[in-house]
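Title: Prediction job returns without error message
Component: structure pipeline
Severity: low
Priority: P3
Assignee: unassigned

Description:
Job completed but the reporter wants confirmation the result is attached to the right record. Sequence as submitted:
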Amino acid sequence: MTDVPLTADTQQTADTQRVEIEYCTQCRWLPRAAWLAQELLTTFEAELTELSLKPGKGGIFVVRVNDETVWDRREQGFPEPTAVKQAVRDRVAPGKSLGHSDRAAQE
């Protein structure tokens, strides 16, 4: 049996990359939030440690990375997945290529 150092657990909190999608339940935006969550989890499966869906009200649709708002529907409209992926990438994996998503944004 191998002992795991306690510092591994402590280090995990420093390496946490958390995304939160807050969506309006009154507007029935859960399917949109869940689809975006799936896109982000697929793209950043190695980089993200947590992704949560947070029910809200009042027309909210906000994407946060480590508590920093990276997309707000009220200011930017509904996000295209490419734009959100780029915003998330810039915070959790700046050197990561998004392949066709990066090329589409440059055209």
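Comment from assignee: result matches the submitted record. The beta strands are 18-24, 50-56, 61-65, 68-72.
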